[in-house]
Design brief:
Radius of gyration of chain B: 17 Å
Largest sheet of chain B: 5 strands, mixed
CATH superfamily of chain B: 6-pyruvoyl tetrahydropterin synthase/QueD
CATH architecture of chain B: 2-Layer Sandwich
Largest interface: A-B, 32 and 24 residues
Oligomer: heterodimer
Strand order of the largest sheet of chain A: 3-1-2-4-5
Structural class of chain A: alpha+beta
Number of helices of chain B: 4
CATH topology of chain B: Tetrahydropterin Synthase, Chain A
CATH topology of chain A: Tetrahydropterin Synthase, Chain A
Distance between the termini of chain A: 35 Å
Largest sheet of chain A: 5 strands, mixed
CATH class of chain A: Alpha Beta
Helix content of chain B: 25-40%
CATH architecture of chain A: 2-Layer Sandwich
Helix content of chain A: 25-40%
Shape of chain B: elongated
Distance between the termini of chain B: 24 Å
Order of helices and strands of chain A: EHEHEHHEE
Number of domains of chain A: 1
Strand content of chain B: 25-35%
Number of strands of chain B: 5
CATH superfamily of chain A: 6-pyruvoyl tetrahydropterin synthase/QueD
Number of domains of chain B: 1
Strand order of the largest sheet of chain B: 3-1-2-4-5
Strand content of chain A: 25-35%
Chain lengths: 154, 143
Amino acid sequence: MEGAADFGEGGGVARTMLITRKIEFSASHLYHNPALSPEENRRVFGKCNNPHGHGHNYTLEVTVAGEPDPVTGMVLDLKELKEILEREVMQRMDHRFLNYEVAELKGKIPTCENIARVIWDLLDPQIKQGRLHRVRLYESADLFADCYRNGAAC
Amino acid sequence: MAVKIELGRRYRFAASHRLHTEKLSEEENARVFGKCANPYGHGHNYVLEISVSGDVDPATGMIANLADLDSFVEREVIEVFDRHSLNEDVAAFRDVVPTTENLCIEIYERLKSFPKAKLERVRVQETTNNSFEYDGSQKGKRS
């Protein structure tokens, strides 16, 4: 058919697309490095060093790159991605104290950068359809961290 | 497998501008810039989003300390632009039209010397419907 898009059926063009799913979770944390003195902790981390911690509503955006399957028209089954996010992120982090209850963050300061990296490492091996392209974790509307595969275009 | 991590931060400032250039006639200014050429200018609530990259310091878990980043952006951008007329108060826009494209470039140039991390890109939202991004690229080469 003249002018019709090539959807890749029968070995045509494979178009790479990005698909993003968002979830939200709530968790508490504090910033404290036992190798630093109390004064240094206070200076480096400010209010985030308050000993009993504080919390955030985190927003996680997970972006997968891939080519739509010519039969299903889908890069990946979003239900499956939803299950992966529920299992790997929600069950681990939602309504948890990140410093004490998330094994992957033991010994690390649970900053946006470190949490995003832990989430990347948890999700990357689980995503079999398409390729994990970006993990963006918002701690608030004004602060977030992005993880990319090194060398991939942002 | 190497993973690249960036820290993103949003800031806000309010400023006025007028899109107008001496290089065009009044009729051409009105045709090209429309309402944005109105003589007394108008304002926006700008949202600035910047991304920086670098190694995450194991002692702090951070690419850059937010207090350092915030004070740098405050000094280099917010104090200069917030509650100001871009045309009248910012030297860079004496002879350059303060479109949000040019504002993006000016902010990139002001922030690229941040000493604690590498500036990856600058995104400026002029309204909730328009946003502009610059990563230092020049035609044919990337910074």
